[in-house]
């Protein structure tokens, strides 16, 4: 895959073209704390005040998502304690919620992700998060810790992405963003949101992103389009429609040994032994995915309502790799439905409950060929797999005397995989991999100690079945011995919000005792496979503070000043883990740093200037189960400066420029885990720059 480099001057000329002035939006540079830390979150069906939550949660706001480079949600997500998001090369994302990175060579597993009410995670438990572009995201709601009782199998947590156009604001926006940067980066975003009448609102979001990449064999090309519609067809009924299509292609440079990483971090994986280089094999990922879903909500009365979502996805996936060429056609159909009843009319007792179900059916046609320098060769394996996953849930919540919140829920999960192997010159093999039905309970409490201070506690079961890509991984074997990981999570926390919400603090501690943790390993041929690791103990502490030191109403030289600091401590250990003749019991959990400390500073300056700073400290990371190799600790500093000015009466234009890795650190943002030949390192780019403009009306 080769993308010709576009010079930055071409981007600048495009930015300055008069045609962009046809679009404009009133862009407000002043920042308030409510924009960064919303007062409510729609956790567990209904909007709740953050002080009322029985779980550890965070809203990654629209403002925070756009505080740095608009090409990625990376820095916005990493500002949440307990989350680590990586990008091994442009377009290759991984997301860890409390340790799930150990299962994710690419994609997202062990974490359940929704687009509003639509499950974005497929029937097998895998999520292609890299298909999305930030232009289509209004904000992201994060529920940390296992919550299988309401959202199905997961041990890390739940992420609910609110697509642009399906939020409650229904705001008008017509805008165009153009930006360019180092290594041939070019990014374009187009937004058109329109309120047709008081009952119907729609939006269209489109984006194009390309980059040559810092490393050899790391180019990226992505096309994205999304449309969202909301129609209140009468006083009680509402229809929401979401459809998106993403055409993603990115080259995969492969991991480097420590010596190769120090000698030339920009190189792709070189040839070694019987294996050609990543560049010779044209190693890459090509993913074309379409998703569509419809959500119908009907309120029978002020107390009783019903929600039904039906959805489907289609993925055409190709992966020329060093050892083979894999193709996958993936299809998923599903629904999510629930009845909700609530009685909020009494001061002493307010309560609600939900009863529902969610199910998905997935069809996966997977073929592996010889890779003849980027072209398909002789067929090696031909497999058909089907995954049926469905669960049923019930939840009840009561708020007593405006002080105590009691919340209990339980889910019953079913999951099984059928497979058929049609290898060349072999008889067809049919098989079935079933998992025992699993009960997933959760109990949570929250108590208001003071009007500004609340304590919370919860206990919940985490449960996650292996995905299709783990049962049938790149070693081309169907692993019927792989078991789900499960365990019990215990959690307590405190949250404080000052009366004017000028200062917010949150601290939480948890302990998750996991059994049968799923671990990624590689065989002698360099192909990955997965096994269970016995017992894992995950103990963690998460703390955050956010303070509006100066607000726009104070009329000072600085228009606003907001500081946040977010700390994650993860004491994760293999409690019982043997592999062959090796005993890793007591070792640190592979790929998990002990400490992550993220700070952000938003500064509103005179003349409509705004400066956003981002700092991330990550401690050293064990790269293999034996803890014999580590990635060095690093400090990552980013900065973005934006200037907004009005043009004509209702139009405004924003120019922005930014720098990534300001300290020019040498670090690996996304290491290969338990890599063959100790090829662990995927070098991130050194200091690099970008700039652009956003205009609208």
UniProtKB/TrEMBL annotation:
<keyword id="KW-0998">Cell outer membrane</keyword>
<dbReference type="InterPro" id="IPR037066">
    <property type="entry name" value="Plug_dom_sf"/>
</dbReference>
<keyword id="KW-0813">Transport</keyword>
<feature type="domain" description="TonB-dependent receptor-like beta-barrel">
    <location>
        <begin position="243"/>
        <end position="662"/>
    </location>
</feature>
<keyword id="KW-0812">Transmembrane</keyword>
<feature type="domain" description="TonB-dependent receptor plug">
    <location>
        <begin position="52"/>
        <end position="158"/>
    </location>
</feature>
<dbReference type="InterPro" id="IPR012910">
    <property type="entry name" value="Plug_dom"/>
</dbReference>
<keyword id="KW-0408">Iron</keyword>
<dbReference type="Pfam" id="PF00593">
    <property type="entry name" value="TonB_dep_Rec_b-barrel"/>
</dbReference>
<dbReference type="InterPro" id="IPR000531">
    <property type="entry name" value="Beta-barrel_TonB"/>
</dbReference>
<keyword id="KW-1134">Transmembrane beta strand</keyword>
<keyword id="KW-0410">Iron transport</keyword>
<keyword id="KW-0675">Receptor</keyword>
<comment type="similarity">
    <text>Belongs to the TonB-dependent receptor family.</text>
</comment>
<dbReference type="InterPro" id="IPR036942">
    <property type="entry name" value="Beta-barrel_TonB_sf"/>
</dbReference>
<dbReference type="GO" id="GO:0015344">
    <property type="term" value="F:siderophore uptake transmembrane transporter activity"/>
</dbReference>
<keyword id="KW-0406">Ion transport</keyword>
<keyword id="KW-0798">TonB box</keyword>
<dbReference type="Pfam" id="PF07715">
    <property type="entry name" value="Plug"/>
</dbReference>
<keyword id="KW-0732">Signal</keyword>
<dbReference type="GO" id="GO:0009279">
    <property type="term" value="C:cell outer membrane"/>
</dbReference>
<dbReference type="InterPro" id="IPR039426">
    <property type="entry name" value="TonB-dep_rcpt-like"/>
</dbReference>
<feature type="signal peptide">
    <location>
        <begin position="1"/>
        <end position="23"/>
    </location>
</feature>
<keyword id="KW-0472">Membrane</keyword>
<protein>
    <submittedName>
        <fullName>TonB-dependent receptor plug domain-containing protein</fullName>
    </submittedName>
</protein>
């Amino acid at each position: 895959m080769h993308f010709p480099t576009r010079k930055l001057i071409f981007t600048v000329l495009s930015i300055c073209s008069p045609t962009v002035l046809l679009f404009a939006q009133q862009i407000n540079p002043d920042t308030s704390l409510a924009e960064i830390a919303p007062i409510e979150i729609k956790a567990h069906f209904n909007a709740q005040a953050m002080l009322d939550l029985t779980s550890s949660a965070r809203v990654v706001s629209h403002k925070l998502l756009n505080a740095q480079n608009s090409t990625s949600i990376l820095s916005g997500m990493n500002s949440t304690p307990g989350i680590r998001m990586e990008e091994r090369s442009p377009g290759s994302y991984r997301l860890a919620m409390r340790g799930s990175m150990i299962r994710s060579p690419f994609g997202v597993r062990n974490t359940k992700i929704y687009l509003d009410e639509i499950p974005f995670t497929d029937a097998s438990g895998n999520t292609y998060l890299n298909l999305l572009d930030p232009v289509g995201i209004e904000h992201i709601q994060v529920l940390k810790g296992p919550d299988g009782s309401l959202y199905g199998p997961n041990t890390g947590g739940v992420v609910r992405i609110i697509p642009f156009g399906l939020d409650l604001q229904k705001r008008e926006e017509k805008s165009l963003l153009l930006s360019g940067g180092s290594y041939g980066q070019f990014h374009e975003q187009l937004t058109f949101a329109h309120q047709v009448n008081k009952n119907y609102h729609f939006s269209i979001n489109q984006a194009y992103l390309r980059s040559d990449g810092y490393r050899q064999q790391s180019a990226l090309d992505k096309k994205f389009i999304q449309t969202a519609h909301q129609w209140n067809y009468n006083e009680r009924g509402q229809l929401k429609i979401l459809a998106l299509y993403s055409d993603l292609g990115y080259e995969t440079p492969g991991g480097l040994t420590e010596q190769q990483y120090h000698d030339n971090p920009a190189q792709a994986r070189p040839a070694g032994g019987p294996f050609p280089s990543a560049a010779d094999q044209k190693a890459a990922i090509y993913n074309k995915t379409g998703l569509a879903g419809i959500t119908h909500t009907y309120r029978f009365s002020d107390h009783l309502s019903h929600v039904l979502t039906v959805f489907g996805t289609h993925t055409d996936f190709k992966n020329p790799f060093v050892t083979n060429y894999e193709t996958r056609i993936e299809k998923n159909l599903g629904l999510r439905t629930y009845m909700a009843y609530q009685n909020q009319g009494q001061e002493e007792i307010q309560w609600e409950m939900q009863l529902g179900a969610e199910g998905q059916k997935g069809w996966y046609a997977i073929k592996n060929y010889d890779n003849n320098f980027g072209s398909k060769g002789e067929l090696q394996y031909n497999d058909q797999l089907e995954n049926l996953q469905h669960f049923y849930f019930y939840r009840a919540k009561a708020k007593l005397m405006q002080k105590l919140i009691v919340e209990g829920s339980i889910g019953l999960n079913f999951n099984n995989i059928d497979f058929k192997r049609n290898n060349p010159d072999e008889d067809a093999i049919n098989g079935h991999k079933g998992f025992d039905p699993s009960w997933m309970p959760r109990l949570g409490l929250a108590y208001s100690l003071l009007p500004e201070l609340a304590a919370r506690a919860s206990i919940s079961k985490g449960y996650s079945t292996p995905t299709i890509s783990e049962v049938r991984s790149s070693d081309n074997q169907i692993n019927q011995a792989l078991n789900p990981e499960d365990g019990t999570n215990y959690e307590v926390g405190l949250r404080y919000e000052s009366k004017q919400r000028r200062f917010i603090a949150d601290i939480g501690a948890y302990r998750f005792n996991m059994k049968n943790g799923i671990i990624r390993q590689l065989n002698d041929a360099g192909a990955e496979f997965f096994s269970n690791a016995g017992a894992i103990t995950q103990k963690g502490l998460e703390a955050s503070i956010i303070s509006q030191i100066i607000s726009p109403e104070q009329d000072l030289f600085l228009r606003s000043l907001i500081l946040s600091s977010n700390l994650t401590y993860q004491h994760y250990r293999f409690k019982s883990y043997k592999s062959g003749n090796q005993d890793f019991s007591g070792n640190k959990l592979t790929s998990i740093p002990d400490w992550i400390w993220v700070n952000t500073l938003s500064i509103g300056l005179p003349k409509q200037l705004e400066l956003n700073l981002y700092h991330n400290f990550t401690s050293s990371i064990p790269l293999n189960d034996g803890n014999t190799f580590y990635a060095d600790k690093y400090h990552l500093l980013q900065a973005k400066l934006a200037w907004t000015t009005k043009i004509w009466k209702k139009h405004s234009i924003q120019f922005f420029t930014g720098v990534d890795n300001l300290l020019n650190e040498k670090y690996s943002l996304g290491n290969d885990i338990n890599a063959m030949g100790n090829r662990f390192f995927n070098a991130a780019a050194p200091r690099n720059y970008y700039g652009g403009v956003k205009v609208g009306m």
